[in-house]
Design goal:
682 residues, elongated
Amino acid sequence: MSEHDNLQDADGKKEVEFQETTPTQDTTSPIETKIEKEVEIEVETEVETEEKETIEVKATEETEKEVEAKSEEPTVTTENESTKEEYVDEIDASNAEDAEDESNAERHELEDKDYHAMSMDALVTELGSLLKHHKIQTISKHVNEIKTEFNAKFGALIDEKKEEFVAEGGNVIDFYYTDDTKKAFNSLYKDYKSSINGYYKEREQNLKQNLENRLAIIEEIKGLLSVEENINTTYKHFKELQETWRNAGPIPRDKYNNAWNTYHHHVERFYDFLHLNNDLRDMDFKHNFEQKLKIIERAEELAEDDNTNRSFRELQVLHKMWKEELGPVGKEHREEIWGRFSKATKTIHDKRQHYYANLDKVHEKNLEKKEELIAKIEAIAKDTTDSHSVWQKKIKDIETLRYAFFKAGKVPLKLNEATWAKFKDAVRTFNRGKNHFYKDLKKDQYENLQKKKDLIKTAEAHKDSDDFTTVTPLMKNIQNQWKKIGHVPRRDSDKIWKQFKGACNHYFDRMHAQRKAQDQHLFDAFDKKTKLLDNLKTLELTDDPKVDIKTLQSKITEWKAIGYVPQNKRYIDGKFYKAIDDLFDKLKMDKSELEMIKFDSKLENLANSEDTRLLDNEQNFIRKKIDEIKSEINQLENNLQFFSNVKSDNPLVKDVHKNIENHKNDLVTWKAKLTKVRGMYS
């Protein structure tokens, strides 16, 4: 109900014609519509009431006729006026909804989220958060959206699981599926229903009592017109009743507008009653005028705000203040201030409508995106293949497209169900093809499972055998066969692998243990050589080369006496002789003599080897080294021919001669080594 409808006739020229507003929702409240009855009675007794007022205030004959004339003229709301102020009615309807519970307005503060884009787990989390952090009466819209999206997604999952169940040979009558996510959602939704039902049950009695209190206030205001007392006392009582009305608490939304209209009608009549005491009336008119100007200024500021939803919500509050907290103003200002307020209201309303119109365009673009995604899913579903890897890629592609579909945003409401159905059909078609492929694949997997079970029987039958010569090749062979057999059902894969691996490991552990026992002396030798090598690394040499040579030779003899080590541990011999060579290099003696001592030690090691190829390799290496040195000497001697006219004390010539001399000394050493190697063959 607008200011134009209710406040313009506060001087009594016109009487408001009341009709009960259409309730915004069904209610089972037993509250009777006393307001309707009151309005009917008021119309019947109106003239009588006016006459009483005239007698009580001892009005002049002219004033009496004026009041009577005013009360006889009804207000007529034309169709154009109704259409023109639909935007005001929209605000009134929303405020009526909030009137049932003042905290219900908090629902506007909840963030609108794209529940369609959320997974089932995310929806459960969101529902739990709403229940935990917000009042139960403010979240119904969000809870219903979450419920719709969760049921749609779970329904699609049920269809998919049912098709898989039937594809595996199950009877559709026996199908049943649930999961922890569904159980969690059901539990939270049950808590919500229990809480909201408890809230409405408790609130119903309060609303009923508050309505009765407000009707009683209206009756008292009506009674003021017939009270025989000082006008100032009556006015004070009237102001107290107004304050009581403001604090009377919420009432049912379907009674809200009708109750307020009735209340406001009698407030206007009281101000008409005060027309003989202009001071009191003008004082109220001035206060109301000043406050309404502030409301208008704020509304005009909101009209410039680009956040349309926020502006509209605050505008609702301004209308509530205008309507519930402030009374009428002087006649000369009423049309003007309501016109300004109505104009700002319409601007905000139109901007909001424009916002939603643009939102519809966004929804149309979202629809196009979703149509494209559905087409891609349909194309993948039509593409058949017999490759497991290709199917795995297709499954990932479908999951990506599904995710993109849910993130694409809302579509026009009228096309939402059709788009969702088309999407489900496309995914279902893909799942049928996938299930058919893997149904055939499972047949092969069960055959592979039987083959691997046969290999397990063979492995377990021979795992305790002591015939290692015969059984070892057999065990290696069945291991190779196992690798060549394809996949088995996932639920059996780990189990049979552990069984097969256990049998094979049992056999080879026994074999290795026996071989280790047979070669224990080799491992003991390795331990001794390790200890000897550690001692050698800390050996301190004396200043007497002969003594140190005997010490090193004794270490070599001790090393050889220990004997062989396991094949995979023979690297320790190389480490030992490297350490011996390093110690020999520290001796203070002739280089060639030292080289021959080291070589003798090396020959002793080669002589003890059962493989003569080591001596052959050493002899070939020495011959190659001798040939290289001879070639170097020849090259240097040829170079001297270029210095025939140069003096012999020339530094470059002296350096060449020194090089030749060093190579000849090395040649003597290597020839001596060759002689010793040849002697090893005799």
